[in-house]
Design goal:
- About 20% of the residues lie in helices and about 30% in strands.
- With about 325 residues, it is α+β, with helices and mostly antiparallel strands.
- It has one domain (about 5-295): lpxc deacetylase, domain 2 (lpxc deacetylase, domain 1).
- The chain has a 5-stranded mixed beta sheet with strand order 2-3-9-4-5, covered by helices on one side. Strands 12-13-20-14-15 form a 5-stranded mixed beta sheet. Strands 6-7-8 form a 3-stranded antiparallel beta sheet, with no helix packed on it.
């Protein structure tokens, strides 16, 4: 059955790219609502939008929703991928996110704080059956040697392959199914990352103004700049998986299928959803209950051993 939060959760932080303080409230929502986002600081009767792929516009280094308000002005909310990922990982079908600024707070650069608070607050089971989007045949989006693919699968699985020039990152692979707590223990705490030589260029373009070693992993050649090093040996591939889970939740419902990304990013994830929904023979919408799909359960597995990697690795 569908699920929402038992009560409102409040997060305070800064935007990764804007560098501005922001308060985000994540509240319960009625069944069949989906995920809604509201800009409370925008005085407009149309300051609310549904988190759907068709509202995404091109943006650098994050997923950005944009729409036209009643006054004709453009309204945006950026960097939504981590909170959407946490909601998907926690099996929250319906929620209302309210922000007093244009960007979701970055927290520690992962989704673990969002997920932990959702788990602590608890979920409320609703009366309507959960809707799932079942992938019926392979759907692929490519750009050069990069690609993002969805294939049929009875279990929602995610695989990401990364190939980075920086030796500290290099080639990484991560694969997991959203089953038995793997999201919480193996995905949620993986942080966003970048190379040191791109920081100045990003800031010149008005990006990463709130970035620091407190909310991102920064590598310089073979060195990890963060004193604690990586949380996992393949943390970067895990974070890209985290991003993909959030971006694909813009389908408007959980996807039953197998995702594989190779050197893909936010824009390619959205493009993949456009390909999926471009042909009705690619998918079907099915109703189900979490109890009928044991692969979707989340909150009962003991933590796996986390790998800590030296900062000089």
């Amino acid at each position: 059955m569908q699920q929402t939060l038992k009560k409102e959760i409040i997060f305070n932080g800064i935007g990764l790219h804007s560098g501005k303080p922001v308060t985000m409230r994540v509240s319960p929502a009625s069944e069949n609502t989906g995920i809604l986002l509201t800009r409370s600081d925008v005085d407009d009767s149309l300051n609310t939008i549904e988190a759907k792929w068709n509202h995404v516009v091109p943006s650098e280094l994050c997923t950005l929703l944009a729409w036209q308000g009643a006054n004709g002005e453009k309204i945006t909310i950026s960097t939504i991928e981590h909170i959407l990922s946490a909601l998907r990982g926690a099996n929250i079908d319906n929620a209302h996110i309210t922000l007093d600024g244009p960007e979701v707070p970055i927290m520690d650069g992962s989704a673990i704080e969002f997920f932990t608070e959702i788990e602590k607050t608890g979920v409320q089971t609703q009366s309507a059956p959960t809707k799932y989007i079942r992938v019926l045949k392979e759907v692929r989006y490519e750009e050069g040697d990069k690609y993002a693919v969805l294939k049929p699968s009875t279990i929602p699985t995610f695989r990401f392959d990364l190939d980075f020039d920086a030796p500290a990152i290099g080639e990484q692979t991560f694969e997991a199914a959203l089953v038995n707590g793997y999201y919480k223990h193996d995905i949620a705490s993986a942080r966003t990352f970048c190379t040191l030589d791109t920081v100045d260029a990003m800031r010149e373009r008005g990006l990463a103004l709130g970035g620091s070693l407190e909310n991102a992993v920064v590598v310089d050649g073979e060195k990890v700049m963060n004193p604690e090093g990586f949380r996992f040996e393949n943390e970067c591939a895990r974070h890209k998986t985290l991003d993909a889970i959030g971006d694909l939740y813009l389908a408007g419902a959980p996807i039953l299928g197998a995702f594989h990304g190779y050197k893909a990013g936010h824009a390619m994830h959205t493009a993949l959803l456009r390909e999926l929904f471009a042909d009705e023979s690619n998918y079907e919408v099915v109703n189900g209950a979490i109890d009928d799909l044991p692969a979707i359960k989340t909150f009962h597995q003991e933590p796996t051993q986390r790998q800590h990697v030296s900062a000089s690795a």
